[in-house]
Structure formats: structure tokens, C-alpha cells
Amino acid sequence: NSLNALAKSKGKLYFGSATDNPEFSNTAYTKILFSDMFGQITPGNSMKWGPTEPSRDTYTYAQGDVVLNDAKNASQIVRAHNLAWYEQLPNWLSSGNFDNATLQTILTDHVTSAATHYKGQVYAWDVVNEPVDDSGNMRSWLYQDKVGTSYIDLAFRAAHAADPNAKLYLNDYNLEYSGAKFNTTLNLVKQLVAQGTPIHGVGFEGHMIVGSVPSAANIASQMNQFTALGLEVAITELDIRQTMPETAAQRMQQKTDYQNMVGACMLVTKCVGVTVWDYTDLYSWVPSTFSGQGAACPWDNNFARKPAYDGIVLGL
Ligand code: XIL
Hints:
The protein is an alpha/beta fold. It has helices at 3-9, 27-33, 49-52, 62-73, 91-94, 100-117, 142-146, 150-162, 180-194, 216-227, 248-267, 286-289, 307-315; strands at 14-19, 40-43, 77-84, 124-129, 167-172, 201-204, 207-209, 232-243, 271-276, 293-294.
């Protein structure tokens, strides 16, 4: 009755869930979240740049601390998320007109502050999030455009200096598929490893679509191209969305899709664990982000387990 216990019995470090502070007022929700069902928690928003540095050099970690402390009380480990990303930047930063040198200082300061605040308390940091776009180009955003790709090395080095024991990840979506985005990411990671950047893992976000999930073996072979470089991998944000309204056939397809995603991690020794991007449809980011899509999580709106849950059990 515990996905985490099952995952651990098969050699994984954890099975976890993302969460967010506003959800903590729902006791039916927190009862499951902080139970032994899950061994790992990711704060879905509260450790991001915008929320943590609302004005330059002013840091607020109260919300992230709540998540961390509740997880600790439940004997759960935390994946901290994230340090350098093109979305949810503080307004002063995205609307400011800073030169290259100042942007480097700003990034170093932010990463150093956050990684120092959580030093020794988190299993991993997603240091660089979604650095490659869907066409396989380095994603155009403030840091890529004004500092260049070296912002990535800068962020990893600052994080490592601040918290030498945290596993430092590059995290992205659609790495489950071969193609331009995957190739660019693999080359980028090869380059980082070759130049001695302190990167330890690659996160496969796992934001998938019902009926479009590759086989476990195919996803595992994508993962193996990173573990061959000496890195670990993890599935960091798993959800499998579908066109609404949900049908019985889609629910069964979703079960198979969850089984394949989780099964891929099981095929890869250095895949350390799986995190769902919240466990219940009630708090999924999908409906508000992808119009007409929903029901992406293994528990429904009323905290009942869906066939997707059984798919996870079969995959583990
Ligand atoms: C999402 C959160 O779940 C939403 O609440 C927020 O409005 C937007 O960000 N990839 C990531 C996550 O790495 O940080 C995103 O989280 C989902 C996509």
C-alpha cells in the first residue's frame, strides 16, 4: 500500500510527489501526501526564483521552508526546484536592463543564497530547468541571450560551492523522445561533463500525453545515454494528460502509459526515483495550462485511486 516502499524494495531511492503550499489547508490531501505512500517531495513553486527573490538581494524562503519542514517531519527527502529557468522570474529581473556582467553576478548571488539556505537539507537541486527549446535550439531567454550558454556552468558551479552534497540536475521535458531536442540536450550535457561542470543528474520531467508514451525500453534507452556519461537520472514531474472528458478507454490507456514510464526507470539502475507532478487531479497544473486537457494524475479529484495507480504498481 505504499508506492515508496515498493520502489525502495526494488532498489530505488524514492517514489515521490510534487506539492504546493496552498494545498496544505486540505487535510484530506495532506493526509496522503505526508503518509508513507511517498518518500520524496518537490515544492512545485515555492523555491523558484520569482517567489524567493521578490526584489534584488531580498530573499524569502518561508514558503519553501514550510514544504521542507513538513517533508522532514514525514521522513521524506526533498528535490529542490529550481534555480535557473526562463519562467516565473522575478519582475525586477525580467524587466530590468542588466548587462552581461551584472546578470552573472545576479545569477551567482541567487544560486548561492538559495543553495546555502537549504544546504545539507535537500537531496537534489534542479539547477538549470528547460534550457533547450522544442526545436532543439538553446532556448532563447534572458540568460541564454545576454550571457550565453556559459550561464549553465556558472549556475552549477555556484550551487556546488554552496551545497557540495546536493545532487545537481539539469531538468527538461520531452527527453523521453529521440530527436533534435534530445540530441542538443545530450550534446550539452556531454560538453558540461567534459569541461568539469559539477552536474550529477538529468531529470526527465515526464509531462506526457495519454496514448503517446513510448515503451519502457525506448525511454530507458534515452536515459541510458545520460547514465553512460556517469550521471544519474530521475523522472521528476510525471503526469499523463488526456483530452477531456475522460473515457474508460483513455483511463485504461493511461494505466499502460504510467506503467511504461515507471517501468523505464526500473530498467535503468541509475534512475534513482520517480516523482509525480502532484498525485491528485484536484491540484494538477494541467487543466489551467493545456486547454481541454486534464485527469493527468494517478488519484482523481476525490482522492480515489485511478487505474493509473495500478499501472504504477505494475511498473515498479
Ligand atoms: C508549474 C507549476 O506546477 C504551476 O503551478 C505553475 O503555475 C507553473 O509551473 N515544468 C516545470 C515546473 O519544471 O516548474 C512547472 O510547474 C511545470 C513544467
